[in-house]
Design goal:
With about 180 residues, the protein is of the alpha+beta class. Helix content is about 20%, strand content about 35%. The protein has 2 helices and 13 strands, in the order E-E-E-E-E-E-H-E-E-E-E-E-E-H-E. The strands form 4 sheets. It has a 4-stranded antiparallel beta sheet with strand order 11-12-7-13. A 3-stranded antiparallel beta sheet has the order 1-6-5. It has a 3-stranded antiparallel beta sheet with strand order 2-3-4, covered by helices on one side.
Length: about 180
Amino acid sequence: MSRVGKNPVAIPDKTKVEIDGSRVSVTGPMGKLEREIHPDMTATVEGAEVLVTRPSDQKKHRSLHGLTRALINNMVEGVSRGFTRELKIIGVGYRAELRGNTLIVNVGYSHPIIMIPPDGITFEVLPKENKVFVKGVDKELVGETAAKIRSFRKPEPYKGKGIRYVDEHVTIKAGKTAGA
C-alpha cells in the first residue's frame, strides 16, 4: 500500500469537494480549483474525507496512487489556506516594486523586467527588506511563478548577488588568490 495514498485527505470547514468521474472540483474560502485525475484512480468523498483507491498493485498504479492523493490534498489546502513563496533580492541597486498588480524588478540589467501575474497569482513586495511574496491557491502555479522570477537573476556563487528563495542556502566560493 502506498504510504501517502492510503491516508485520507481531511476536508476542512467551509470547503466543498465534488468528484464527477475523473474530474475533481474543490471550492473554499480562497477560491475554486479543478483538476482531471488519472482515469485509473478512484476518488470518493466519505464524510469529511476524500479517499483515493487504486485498481491493482502494479508499479504504475502504486505511483499514481500517492500522486493523486497529494494533488487532491494540495487543492484542498490551497482553497482553504492558500500558498506563498517568499523570494529575497540581494545586491546593491537590486530592487523590486509593485505598480498596480505588475511586478517591476531591477537586477542589474540595462532595463527593468516587467512581470504581469498569471490569473490566480498576486504579488506582495516589502521594499525595505527587498522581499517578494508570490501568493495563490494553486501550489503548482505559485511555485512556477516564483521560479520564473528567480530565473531573472539566479544567485551567483562568488558574492551571492541575485534573487533567491528565503529558505535557500547559497554556498559562496572562494575567489582567485594572488599568485606567490
